[in-house]
């Protein structure tokens, strides 16, 4: 099961909490660059940066809206956004993407950059780098909060035999911290649409059934490739068209209930089929010797139930069959109770309960009805 980190494992509203300027850059300059690159950004992160720099550093919307600025929206390929103004590129985004941008323009990187990024990552935050032309301005600390009940849900997934993989655009250090705190089995950091697709295809090649939740346009190819793709109702049209199903409540963790209901349906169908087959085998083994014992006396040892006559044997089987169908209707409507177990323990439990039960119940039921019919004079 592939789960997007933001909004699924975490609350999704990453908030700017700290500015870490590079050497030779004042915190005011970093605040200005971060605000200008985010002023037209409608993502929660972009809005939180604007709110942070205007509240803490006294900047205003008029200050951040530079004349002639051209906004560059975020792209899953470039992993950055910002604006171009007076020939100057102001960008914010993933640290490695901004580093490549700065170096491609001939700029240098701060010596303590790795230390600052690692400190944020170890705290479970997301570092967002900011550049202005070829100048590396600094890092914004985005604070994220893990959902309170998410670890319990992953425990339930694990008990069901489902492996969970967190998908995030964060750097590996931040991803590892959040994955450890949330309790997921694995993670894919710095994820791009191509890497998501490659991961799904690799798991499918191993014979695994892959499910994925997503809401963005960049999730659409992976949602289409996955065996089960659940798109959020609040997501883009491309994501909703690519998925197999749409969650109207836009709750990605609802996939847990989807899997449980699906498994319960399969278990109920399997249990009823197993019981019916076992019931038929036992039923005919019980009544056939009594039916043909008059013609073939040699099969008398097979009449282990000692049914009174062919007539009562057939009548007992018909009555038993009518009663057992009525008794199975509530089970078919309510369904077999699902327990979060692996496939092998579930199979053993169902075979023991409904397979063995289907063999034993007909012998007891038909014999009891036969005794009752004889007592009533049939």
From TrEMBL:
It comes from the Bacteria. The keyword Membrane applies. GO terms for cellular component: membrane. It holds the Pfam family Hydrolase. One of its GO terms (molecular function) is metal ion binding. PROSITE patterns: ATPASE_E1_E2. It is found in: Membrane. Keywords: ATP-binding, Cell membrane, Ion transport, Magnesium, Membrane, Metal-binding, Nucleotide-binding, Phosphoprotein, Potassium, Potassium transport, Translocase, Transmembrane, Transmembrane helix, Transport. The chain crosses the membrane at residues 281-300, 312-333, 353-376. This is K(+)-transporting ATPase subunit B. The lineage of its organism: Bacteria, Pseudomonadati, Thermodesulfobacteriota, Desulfobaccia, Desulfobaccales.
């Amino acid at each position: 099961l592939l789960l997007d980190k933001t909004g699924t494992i975490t609350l999704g509203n990453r908030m700017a909490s700290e500015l870490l300027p590079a050497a030779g850059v004042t915190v005011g300059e970093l605040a200005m660059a971060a605000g200008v690159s985010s002023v037209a950004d409608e993502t929660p992160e972009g809005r939180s940066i604007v709110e942070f720099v205007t509240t803490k550093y006294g900047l205003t919307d008029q200050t951040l809206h530079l004349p002639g600025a051209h906004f560059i929206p975020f792209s899953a390929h470039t992993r950055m956004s910002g604006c171009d103004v007076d020939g100057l590129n102001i960008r914010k985004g993933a640290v490695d993407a901004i580093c490549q941008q700065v170096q491609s323009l001939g700029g240098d990187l701060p010596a303590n950059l790795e230390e600052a990024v690692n400190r944020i990552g170890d705290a479970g935050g997301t570092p967002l780098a900011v550049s202005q032309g070829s100048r590396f301005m600094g890092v914004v600390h985005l604070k994220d909060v893990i959902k309170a009940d998410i670890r319990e849900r992953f425990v339930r997934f694990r008990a069901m035999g489902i492996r969970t993989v967190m998908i995030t655009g964060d750097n590996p250090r931040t991803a590892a911290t959040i994955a450890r705190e949330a309790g997921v089995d694995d993670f894919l950091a710095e994820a791009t649409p191509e890497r998501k697709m490659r991961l799904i295809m690799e798991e499918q090649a191993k014979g695994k059934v892959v499910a994925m939740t997503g809401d963005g346009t960049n999730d659409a190819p992976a949602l289409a490739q996955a065996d089960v793709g659940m798109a959020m109702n609040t997501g883009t049209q491309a994501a909703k068209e690519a998925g197999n199903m749409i969650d109207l409540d836009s709750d990605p963790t609802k996939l847990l209930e989807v899997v449980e209901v699906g498994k319960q349906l399969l278990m109920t169908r399997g249990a009823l089929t197993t019981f019916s087959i076992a019931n038929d085998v036992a039923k005919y083994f019980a009544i056939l010797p009594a039916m043909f014992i008059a013609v073939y006396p040699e099969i008398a040892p097979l009449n282990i139930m000692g049914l009174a006559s062919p007539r009562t044997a057939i009548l007992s089987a018909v009555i038993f069959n009518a009663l057992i169908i009525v008794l199975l209707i509530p089970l078919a409507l309510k369904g077999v109770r699902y327990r979060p177990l692996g496939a092998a323990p579930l199979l053993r439990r169902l075979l023991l309960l409904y397979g063995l039960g289907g063999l034993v119940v007909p012998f007891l039921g038909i014999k009891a009805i036969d005794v009752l019919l004889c007592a009533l004079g049939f």
